[in-house]
Amino acid sequence: MANRKNILCVVGSRNQTTQLHEIAKFLEDDYNVYYSQLFGEGILYRAAAEIGFFDNTVLGRDSSFTRSSQEYIRMHNLNYDYRGTTKGITYDLALLSTDMIVPKSFKKIKTVWIQEGMIDPINKFAKLVNRLGLPPYTTASTALNGTTNIADLYFAMSQGYKEYFTTYGTDRNKILATGVPNFDHISSLKETTYPERDFVLVATSDIRELGGNDDRSHLIRKAVEIADGRKIIFKPHPNEKIRRVISEIYSLIPNATIITDPIIDTLIAHCDTLITQYSSCVYQGLVLGKTVYSYFPIEELESKKPIQNGGKSGVIISNIIREYIEYQGNKKDFISSSSVAQKYL
């Protein structure tokens, strides 16, 4: 154990944690793997943290994202090393779910970024932040996640997202379109069971909790219009203020069905129509051939649909990481020298 190389998985939400774990489990036999909640360094980060800027994000020490991630880490008895400093370990490689906040100390080691899910829409403010070179997290969204070009390797869920990351700053020659574990075997959801069929599923987003504006009444009324008499099931985002959501829905649909348990995948598999705002689950609906509504243009979503490889992304990504952590040459030459990585350019 002592002579093995060390990998730090920097996690945020539960989805980010489960995805990095899905990749890391293929590396655990040969490397020491540890986990840390996302953290930042520097004056700007500390100032933003002090005023509560991160309280509803994966950086918040007691946010719903963080609590859920920590619960998963405890449940699976994963090695935890907050900020990579509590164990006295020197790390060789870091796995990242975001490149919007990357500790300066990581410049000394190898870094790999893995796309977790949907990227927030790029609005005028995010474009300005990108153009001025301001810290990406100041957008208060994930719009610039994957675009900073900081990591050595980038793993994207699709060629469409590779184009997006390239457009806003990351070198296309370091982006590999492999698919990602969270979304690479969506057809398997057909094997799940649920007592109802042909309903309309409304998956709401945590837009307000992240500082945005959301006309929730309009969304609910639109859902009623689309349903046209069919049953509607509402599934709030885990980060939303649930009591508020329930009150809003019942005020317009007194007999509405609201499900707060985390079974969104099963619901999508058995619904007829999926209504979303800004949610990665829209891709599951598209791949499964559901009628889909989204705040994103459907054409754009189609171009970014995740690669389906039967659940092999974890193995594919871990094999490339294994090769990279052992690579002795110049970081910039790795992909061109790797026959495995070349397949996914």
Structure description:
The protein has about 350 residues and is an alpha/beta fold. It has two domains: about 5-185 and about 305-340, Rossmann fold; about 185-305, 3-Layer(aba) Sandwich (Rossmann fold), CATH 3.40.50. It is about 35% helix and about 15% strand. The protein contains 13 helices and eleven strands. The strands form two sheets. A six-stranded parallel beta sheet has the order 2-1-3-4-5-6, sandwiched between helices. A five-stranded parallel beta sheet has the order 9-8-7-10-11, with helices on both faces. Helix 1 (about 15-25) links the parallel strand 1 (about 5-10) and strand 2 (about 30-35). The longest helix is centred in the C-terminal third of the chain and has 14 residues, at about 315-325. It starts with 5 loop residues before the first strand and ends with a helix. The model has no long low-confidence stretch (mean pLDDT about 90).
